[in-house]
Amino acid sequence: MNLLKTMFPFWAAILANVLAQILKPFFHYLRTRDFNPHYTIACGGFPSSHTSTVTALVCAVGIVEGIHSTLFAVTMIFALIVIYDAVNVRYYAGKNIQLTKQLIADLEETFKLKLDDPIYFEKMKQVLGHRYVEALGGLLLGIAVALVMAMLNGFL
Question: Which residues cross the membrane (predicted)?
């Protein structure tokens, strides 16, 4: 049996992740008319690479091992945690960073303060997580990748 077949869940997850990252600058362009290749390595954006990766993994494991297997249950729980983290914890962490930066700017402007502690100059990512529509895009991409790869490898 070849490596692609024996490692099908792994390769499906990797391909879904890479495709999601490659697609991000194009979807960003469709929304803003600004093509920025940096989005291929950025966090956040459409589609969610976190969601596409774990969804492809779950689907591939379900195809190979069956949906009643322990391994499928483990990957499903893992996927739910990752997706929840991407759309909730990480998303709101990014929102918190935006709010904090705005508060600092407002304080400086309103009270004519000059905040010079190095912590105020630390570069932080503002976009860390995903909105639900971005996670949905990743979910659909992950399912599609797993199904196409399964068909090409004779699993379906």
Answer: 71-93, 132-152
CA distances from 5 to 1, 2, 57, 122, 155 (A): 7, 6, 14, 46, 9
Q: What share of the chain is helix, strand, coil (3-state, %, to 5)?
A: 75, 0, 25
Across 31-56, b (16+ Cβ under 10 Å) vs e yields: eeeeeeeebbebbbbbbbbbbbbbbb
How does residue 148 score in pLDDT terms, banded at 50, 70 and 90? Answer: very high
- Residues 18-76 have pLDDT tens digits of 999 999 999 999 999 999 999 999 888 999 999 999 999 999 999 999 999 999 999 99
How does 77-102 read in b/e, with b if 16+ C-beta sit within 10 Å?
Answer: eebeebbeebbeebbeebeeeeeeee
The structure's pTM equals 0.85
